[in-house]
């Protein structure tokens, strides 16, 4: 009997797709990592979209890896006859990891902020401590009611080694005297009310020359696509006021402005405006923490904003390396390095136009959109 199938997504923690026999019935898949079988019983996932192609809606599959994949690991998804699904072998996760882990090695001591149920680094392979604003038990309770399987699996939230609660410094939360080589944060910085203060806190626990690696959502590829980018004044305001929770402004803007990709701009409904206002009042009059995207960046705006902020002398990191948004991805990656250079020298790193940063970014965007214009 003939089989067919397709790997739709392969990420560090998850592989998914569909498989069927020649009659359109669901087919089992066998998943290998570096040649070793990890499962032949991937979870069945209903896929109504398959029916239009004569395939059972039960032909979808999904599998979550016990540990996040490393940059050296290759995933193969095989059909019952031993043939590969289209898209297998899977190596797409490797490109992202090479960028995030640029010069970060397993033996180095580091922090990963906000791993939740999808840590980047495996504690079995890296000397890493997980940091979050609450304990694992508190995070499970927080997300259990609101999360969906597509967004977060509360039962798989990783144990938290260091609780960095709002209002406390990171230096007070880590073991006394410990300095780290790096800090990794994927899709975290946009949730931070005061990113500059946050980076300063991280700098205090890093060694000289320590690395901060950030995966930053690209406004154009996320539900923030209709929102205004964060101006320098917003970062300065949050820093001066030392806010540790999303502000009423940030909450109101997020609720009234996020929208699905592909939708055109339209005014928020009166009901949504009232809801957003109620939440804004709620965070103002209480200690409530409402999780939103406090800040919005495009690839270009990130550099423009951080160059201006660097001139103030409050940014302890120079730009070390930049990786533009990859085709099919929704993020760009920046590598920052702790330094004690003069503000003008740090600002210059965010303004460089050599091939390593803006030159490569311009070429990348121009390839996607020949009409793209840059200031």
Task: Summarize the structure in words.
By secondary structure, the chain is an alpha/beta fold. The protein has 2 domains: 3-90, Sandwich (Immunoglobulin-like), CATH 2.60.40; 96-368, 3-Layer(aba) Sandwich (Rossmann fold). The chain has 10 helices and 14 strands. Strands 10-9-8-11-12-14-13 form a 7-stranded mixed sheet. A 4-stranded antiparallel sheet has the order 1-2-6-5, with no helix packed on it. The model is unreliable at 353-375 (pLDDT under 50).
CATH topology of the largest domain: Rossmann fold
User: Which class of secondary structure composition applies to the elements?
Assistant: alpha/beta
Q: How do the SSEs run, as a string of H and E?
A: EEEEEEEHEEHEHEHEHHHHEEHH
CATH class wording of the largest domain? Alpha Beta
Task: Identify low-pLDDT runs.
Answer: 353-375
Dominant shape: globular
- Residue share in β-strands: 15-25%
Q: How large is the radius of gyration?
A: 22 Å
- Major beta sheet summary: 7 strands, mixed
**CATH architect. name of the largest domain:** 3-Layer(aba) Sandwich
Number of beta strands: 14
Q: For the record, what is the CATH homologous superfamily label of the largest domain?
A: Vaccinia Virus protein VP39
Q: Give the end-to-end Cα distance, rounded to a whole number of Å.
A: 59 Å
Strands across the major sheet, in which order? 10-9-8-11-12-14-13
Q: What does the average pLDDT come to? A: 90
> How many domains, in number, for the residues?
2
Question: What's the number of helices?
Answer: 10
């Amino acid at each position: 009997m003939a089989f067919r199938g397709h790997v739709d997504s392969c990420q560090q923690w998850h592989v998914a797709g569909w498989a069927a026999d020649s009659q359109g019935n669901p087919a089992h898949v066998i998943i290998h990592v570096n040649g070793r079988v990890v499962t032949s019983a991937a979870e069945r996932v209903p896929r109504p979209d398959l029916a239009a192609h004569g395939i059972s809606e039960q032909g979808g599959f999904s599998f979550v890896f016990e540990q996040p994949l490393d940059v050296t690991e290759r995933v193969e998804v095989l059909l019952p006859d031993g043939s590969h699904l289209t898209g297998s072998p899977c190596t797409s996760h490797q490109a992202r990891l090479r960028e995030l882990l640029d010069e970060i090695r397993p033996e180095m001591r580091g922090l990963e902020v906000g791993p939740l149920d999808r840590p980047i680094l495996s504690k079995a392979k890296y000397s890493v401590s997980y940091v979050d604003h609450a304990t694992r038990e508190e995070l499970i309770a927080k997300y259990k009611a609101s999360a969906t399987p597509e967004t977060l699996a509360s039962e798989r939230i990783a144990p938290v080694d260091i609780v960095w609660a709002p209002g406390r410094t990171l230096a007070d939360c880590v073991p006394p005297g410990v300095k780290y080589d790096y800090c990794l944060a994927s899709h975290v910085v946009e949730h931070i009310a005061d990113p500059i203060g946050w980076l300063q806190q991280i700098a205090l626990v890093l060694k000289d020359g320590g690395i901060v690696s950030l995966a930053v959502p690209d406004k154009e590829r996320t539900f923030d696509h209709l929102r205004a980018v964060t101006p320098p004044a917003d970062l300065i305001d949050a820093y001066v006021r030392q806010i540790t929770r999303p502000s009423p402004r940030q909450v109101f803007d997020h609720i009234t402005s996020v929208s699905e990709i592909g939708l055109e701009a339209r005014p928020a409904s009166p009901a949504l405006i009232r809801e957003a206002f109620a939440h804004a009042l709620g965070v103002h009059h209480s200690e409530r923490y409402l999780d939103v995207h406090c800040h919005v960046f495009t690839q270009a705006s990130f550099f423009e904003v951080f160059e201006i902020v660097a001139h103030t002398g409050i940014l302890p990191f120079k730009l070390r390396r930049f990786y533009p948004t990859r085709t099919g991805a929704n993020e760009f990656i920046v590598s920052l390095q702790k330094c004690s250079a003069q503000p003008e020298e740090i600002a210059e790193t965010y303004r460089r136009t050599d091939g390593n940063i803006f030159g490569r970014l311009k070429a990348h965007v121009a390839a996607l959109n020949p009409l793209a214009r840059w200031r």
